[in-house]
Amino acid sequence: MAEITFIEPDGSERTVTAEAGRSIMEVAVENGVRGIDADCGGSCSCATCHGYIGKDWLEKLQPADYGEDSMLEFVDDRLENSRLTCQIKVTPDMDGMRIRLPQSQG
Fold first, then answer.
1. pLDDT tens sequence across 62-99
2. Superfamily of domain 2-105
3. DSSP string, 22-51
4. pLDDT bracket for residue 34 (50, 70, 90)
5. Are 98 and 54 in contact (CB under 8 A)?
């Protein structure tokens, strides 16, 4: 288990308990986090689960693969720390991770 804090598009924060092995997107949807629509259900084909990973956490994750990187090309507000949360599996060492969600997803 890990506690992950989402900073929703309006700036409010929501900390949720995430079970290891689930995607960050699944955890967000199950906990009603605003700003994660997950229209494709986690198949990496829509980018509606785009989030900005805290830079101190980004280097601890596997880099985005070709499919994720290609999908992120369609995001208008992409930054260096942009990731699709459907492509990141929760691990216990993610405890304390912070993810900011784009205002465009509000």
1. 999 999 999 999 998 999 999 999 999 999 999 999 99
2. Beta-grasp domain (3.10.20.30)
3. SBHHHHHHHTT-TT---TTSSSSSS-TTEE
4. very high
5. yes
What secondary structure does DSSP assign to 40-88, as a single string? TSSSSSS-TTEEEE-HHHHTTSPPP-HHHHHHHTT-TT--TTEEEGGG-
How far, in Å, are 12, 60, 64, 74 from residue 106 at the CA level?
11, 27, 24, 17
**Contact (CB, 8 A) for 52 and 99:** yes
Q: Where are the domains of the chain?
A: 2-105
Encoding tokens for residue 43?
Answer: 């198949």
Please name the amino acid found at residue 16.
V
Q: Which tokens go with 78? A: 């992409």
Q: For residue 82, give both structure tokens.
A: 């942009």
For range 39-65, the mean pLDDT: 91
94: helix, strand or coil: helix
